[in-house]
Amino acid sequence: MRRIAHISDLHFGRTDPAVVAGLTEELNRDRPDLIIASGDFTMRARQVEYAEAQAFLAGLASPWIAVPGNHDISPYHLVQRFLRPFDRYKRYIASDTEPVFSDDEVGIVCINTVRRWAPERDWSQGKIHRWQIARAELRLRALPNHLFKIVVGHHPFMPPPWDEEARIVGRADLALAAFRRCGVGLTLAGHLHRHYSRFVEAADPGADRSTVDQGSARATEQRMLAVQAGSATSTRLRGNEPNAYNRIVVENGAATVTVRLWDGGGWRDAA
Ligand SMILES: [Fe+2]
Ligand SMILES: [Fe+2]
């Protein structure tokens, strides 16, 4: 069994200190085997924000892996943004923006979906290059077959069940098809500051999405589940959704996801 905490969109620079302290306390009491952070550590990629994110990570008792989010490259310093977009991320968070993790139970491949530029007004949207899909596929195939496989990115792989038109990561269809070929059971992402879980269609054409309880969901190698985390610590909340993170248990080739919500004084399971 592996216990994983999936946190996202911490947004240092605009956090609630009580929630940050509460999250640190909960994670250090719970001691998951691994913490996965799916991007947006900062608001504006300022050094002071990165320093806070670095201090938060240094205070965690569990090992962690991470990907950057669109807020983690500077919106102000365009030369830096174009030439060395992930310099600060690499200095304060991690030198690798696409880490791979495996033990004898789970195999995790991370994809950096952040783009420094886009041919549209909104540069915050994410995209996966074809070469990134090919590399992720190679990395997934290199993992031993018996591992439960997880892919992590910042931008969502599936839209919310209540908004099918919502923007998802560019080339999600190609990426999901590749993940399916490799037997991925779970994708994890953030960015929308809303938590939800839904099965990826075509994994099981007869799957009834309404059977996914938004408080907890179960994925298997045969049935790929796309899981989104809310914002763990930011005051930038959307849709009246409180701060949230996901508790994931991987056991016997399946993952069970439970959403943990901040109620103002502590964390509790979503209804
Ligand atoms: Fe965010
Ligand atoms: Fe984001």
Kindly describe this structure:
The protein has 271 residues and is α/β, with parallel strands linked by helices. It has one domain (2-269): Metallo-dependent phosphatases (Purple Acid Phosphatase, chain A, domain 2). Helices cover 23% and strands 25% of the residues. It contains six helices and 13 strands. It has helices spanning 17-30, 47-58, 78-83, 87-92, 130-142, 172-181, and strands spanning 2-7, 34-38, 64-67, 100-102, 106-110, 148-152, 184-189, 196-199, 216-220, 225-228, 244-251, 254-262, 267-269. The strands form two sheets. Strands 1, 2, 3, 9, 11, 12 and 13 form a seven-stranded mixed β-sheet that branches. It has a six-stranded mixed β-sheet with strand order 4-5-6-7-10-8, with helices on one face. Helix 5 packs parallel to helix 6 (172-181). The longest helix has 14 residues, at 17-30. One fe (ii) ion binds next to loops. The site of one fe (ii) ion (FE2) has 7 residues, from loops.
Brief write-up:
The protein has helices at residues 17-30, 47-58, 78-83, 87-92, 130-142, 172-181, and strands at 2-7, 34-38, 64-67, 100-102, 106-110, 148-152, 184-189, 196-199, 216-220, 225-228, 244-251, 254-262, 267-269. The protein has 271 residues and is of the alpha/beta class. The strands form two sheets. Strands 1, 2, 3, 9, 11, 12 and 13 form a seven-stranded mixed sheet that branches.
For this entry, give a set of tags:
metal-binding, hydrolase, 23% helix, 7-stranded mixed sheet, 13 strands, 6-stranded mixed sheet, 6 helices, Purple Acid Phosphatase, chain A, domain 2, Metallo-depent_PP-like, 271 residues, binds fe (ii) ion, CNP_phosphodiesterase-III, alpha/beta
